[in-house]
Amino acid sequence: MKKLISILLAFALCVSICACGENACIDSEETSNTTTVAETTETTTEISSEIKSDYILNTNSMKFHYPSCHSAKKISDKNRKEYHGTRDSVISQGYDACGICNP
Ligand SMILES: [Zn+2]
Predict the structure, then answer these.
(1) How much is the pLDDT for 50?
(2) Does any domain span residue 93?
(3) What are 13-65's pLDDT values in tens digits?
(4) What pLDDT, on the 0 to 100 scale, is given for residue 49?
(5) How far is the C-alpha of 43 from the C-alpha of 20, rounded, in Å?
(6) Residue 69: CB partners within 8 Å, gap ≥ 6?
(7) φ, ψ for residue 82 (rounded to 5)?
(8) Mean per-residue pLDDT for 84-93?
(9) How many A from CA of 39 to the centre of ligand 1?
(10) Counting beta carbons within 10 angstroms of the beta carbon of residue 59, is it exposed (0 to 12), middle (13 to 18) or buried (19 or more)?
């Protein structure tokens, strides 16, 4: 009786390992595909609304820039304000997007 149980256990173990191995392989391929698709759609839709970024605000001209914008680097310290938030929240404060860097 003990032998039968151990044989059954060994068989079950073998089956589960084989099944797991195949499933894991299929799963990882499927999930990697779906995540890449999801990521690309998310980034394209969220850039304009939800994603928080660093911006440089010009409190004098009421324009906002990407920190990399060469025009933002010319803003004098008293008119310059660093901001981290969504694009919409900057616009809602009355700022306009810079025409050069198009933040
Ligand atoms: Zn700019």
Answers:
(1) 79
(2) yes
(3) 656 655 655 555 455 555 555 555 555 555 444 444 578 999 999 999 999 99
(4) 58
(5) 33
(6) 56, 98, 100, 101, 103
(7) -85, 140
(8) 97
(9) 27
(10) middle
Are the beta carbons of 58 and 83 closer than 8 angstroms? no
61 phi/psi in degrees, rounded to 5:
-90, -5
Which amino acid is residue 66, in one-letter code?
Y
- Domains held by the chain: number: 1
Q: How far is the CA of 76 from the centre of ligand 1 (A)?
A: 14
Whole-number Å distance, alpha carbon 47 to ligand 1 midpoint, is 17
Does 60 reside within a domain?
A: yes
The residue type of 20 is: C
Identify the domain containing residue 84 by its residue range: 52-97
How many whole angstroms from 41 Cα to the centroid of ligand 1? 26
pTM of this prediction exceeds 0.85: no
Strand partners, 96: 63
